[in-house]
Amino acid sequence: GAVVSQHPSRVICKSGTSVKIECRSLDFQATTMFWYRQFPKQSLMLMATSNEGSKATYEQGVEKDKFLINHASLTLSTLTVTSAHPEDSSFYICSAREEPGYTFGSGTRLTVV
Amino acid sequence: AQKVTQAQTEISVVEKEDVTLDCVYETRDTTYYLFWYKQPPSGELVFLIRRNSFDEQNEISGRYSWNFQKSTSSFNFTITASQVVDSAVYFCASYNFNKFYFGSGTKLNVKP
Question: B interface mutation test: which of A4, A34, A43, A47 has the most B CBs within 10 A?
């Protein structure tokens, strides 16, 4: 089946630094990818929709200058958490559409210390 | 807007028991999709099933079965003869216009 590869799986960074998370579709092209955030024991909340070759669409309340999304090719979308703070610590997960369902990456657990 | 409710926060069963995870959705759309995903401790979301709003046929896949009832806006998931490997958080979700609306998830603990 379709696979979405997400890296890194875990990252610890210092407050104030930036962290880049990659999401790759393997063996299929994804013109649209989605980025979610999941707090502990909570559901997934859509942060933004990443569109290849154009600007991402952010959900209400998500700071686009803080969560930079780049979708430069049909198989790669990146999420950069800029000037990270401890409250940005969370589980971030991407997904892409591949019939019959949407395939999700394995997630990235970000810890900001 | 759409909304998905999974009233059961956590369920514990003993291996080989049957268990049903409830899912109730709200939508004003006539066309929509419903999904179930499994999230094991490792974190990835594993696709289980997709149903479109025009297909109310129940589905069975091995030990898994799904009951879609538009009259009650429910899309319940039953695991027959549960196994320890079924332990995970299960999410029900509705989808339309490129957006997922996830329920809060039900954590299933299957004890040996």
Answer: A43
Residues A95 and A33: their CA atoms lie apart, in Å, by 6
What torsion do the CA atoms of A69, B93, B111, A91 make, to the nearest 10 degrees?
Answer: 10
Locate the chain B residue with the closest alpha carbon to A100: B50
What is the residue whose two structure tokens read 């030990």?
Answer: B63
* Cis status of the peptide bond prior to A8, with omega within 30 of 0: yes
Comparing C-alpha atoms, which of B107, B41, B87, B48 is closest to residue A9?
Answer: B41
Give the chain A residue nearest B33 (alpha carbons): A101
| Residue in the structure block whose two tokens are 């091995």 | B62
pLDDT tens track for A48-95: 999 888 899 999 999 999 999 999 889 999 999 999 999 999 999 999
The pLDDT tens digits of the residues spanning B38-74 come to 999 888 889 899 999 998 888 899 999 999 999 999 9
Residues of chain B contacting A49 with CB distance shorter than 8 Å? 98
C-alpha to C-alpha distance for B34 and B53, rounded to whole angstroms: 8
Collapsed DSSP state (helix, strand, coil) of residue B101: strand
Which percentage of chain A shows pLDDT scores above 90? 73
